[in-house]
Specification:
three-stranded antiparallel β-sheet; alpha+beta
Amino acid sequence: MISWLLGSKVRDWAYFREMFQDFENVAVYSSAQGVIEIVKVSDLDPLHSQVTVLIHPRNLNKLVISYLKLKDYVAFPVFNLKDLRELAQRRTWRAIEYYYLWEFEGGWVLYDCKNCEDEQRLQINVDPFASVNERLAVWEGFHT
């Protein structure tokens, strides 16, 4: 259905919002050159939906998150295990950790948030190696 997007140039956020308005969870990943490489969509039960469109963080060395929409969450990648675990200690925040041979390769931090498109957009534009304070500043900008 949406396979025609693969190999095309990335469009702006509004284009993806309109295209994927009927899907609860969507992620579009592109190359550094702005060519769409992966499109994942899901309408699974909310308990499992957030992980179905998120890719293994090690792939983010080659790919860029061009669009991310999660029905009830904001998600962003983190590559520092200490920071990831510190963020996951907050109320309604959680983390998904990825390892290879006992070595941490990266993870995703998610927190509960409904209709948080602007917040999601800001969080994915923050450097995955950013400090905890930078992540919290985005969150506080919307929740204080």
